[in-house]
Amino acid sequence: MTHHSTPSLYRIAFASFIGTAIEFYDFYIYGLAVAMVIGSVFFPSSDPATQALNAFLTFGIAFLARPIGALLFGHFGDRVGRKTTLVASLLVMGISTMLIGVLPSYEMVGWTAPALLCLLRFGQGIGLGGEWGGAALLAAEYAPKGRRGWFGMFPQLGPPVGFLLATSSFLMLSFMLDDAQFRTWGWRIPFLASAALVIVGLYVRLKLTETPVFAQALQAHTPVKFPLLRLFSHHLKPLLLGALAMVMCYALFYIATVFSLSYGVSALHIPRPQFLMMLCVAVLFMAAATPLAASAGDKYGRRPVLITAGVAACLSGFLLAPMLGSGSLWLITAYLCIALFLMGATFAPMGALLPELFPTNVRYTGAGTAYNLGGILGASLAPYIAQQLVMHGGLAWVGGYISVAAGISVAAILVMKETRNKELA
User: Fold this and answer.
1) Cβ–Cβ contacts within 10 Å for residue 162, how many?
2) How many domains does the chain have?
3) pTM of the model
């Protein structure tokens, strides 16, 4: 069977999808827990607003760690291979997530609890930092000519599926447990349950073979000794442009999910199970946008799709205050659907675009670092900044934040050259 026979390709596509789905499930359960319970469990001595701010800061720690993870795993991914590195990143992420599930609370061990939480959150960031770049390369480097955007879509489907799994797990707990049970021990269950998902992911990943593009490059050339130095000395411009292009994806997603959930439950007094159901509906729109945008990227190019979706994202910022602040469940759900649809449309082409920006010998390091630097700029402090903007200016300022983030990304994409027909070599 050749590398490019259909069964092999779709097995590779599934492997790239399942890994990102598991890793993002792990990542999102923390984001949802931040919006609901982390503040009261690990920062109980402060008032609710300060609890939320402290919890949002722990949320941001992982985004600071993600570029470090991208550089660490990218180094070995570009020197040793994609397969081994992807297995290691999944293990780091999975172990960190499970350990969060058994952490003692502040009431049990004092400030040791939030200190350990920050350490494990850093570990989550390291693991996820190495995951996406490898999964995207796995799909892109196996994809047949003219279908790189379509196969690059599969790791992009992981986040909405992971988010749906994370949201539905907390939703089930909301129906099964009362508030006291949830805050005492129930919130830990999704973290512990990730162990089963990690086992599935490891089984799939260990059956992979190395990508043909990397294998051929390894035969033709000695691997770069220090991919990071090569990246910064020869490919700094695409690295920075790729990072800026990612900003709008992150801002859209984390404002529409983590911040909106926190605001909806605390300020609008919408019951938590109800808001989680609204998010479950909205994330389906993100999943629907992903294949549409990926297919359009193969047909029309990455830039036209991203520019169109980015301009729409910029305009969507003006909808946040009147729709989210309306108190109407229908309008709020409609806003969440719009925001996450646009997130899917801006995110899907990145599975092909970012790998296309770099040559094989630094592709893992370059694509992963650009992706995760965008996370620092667009997501690490997004819920925190949004909380501050609401407290000092109102919801309209949060909408402005989304518009500015989208504007930055559109400007970066306008500077880029089209990469659709670029050969991966």
Assistant:
1) 22
2) 1
3) 0.82
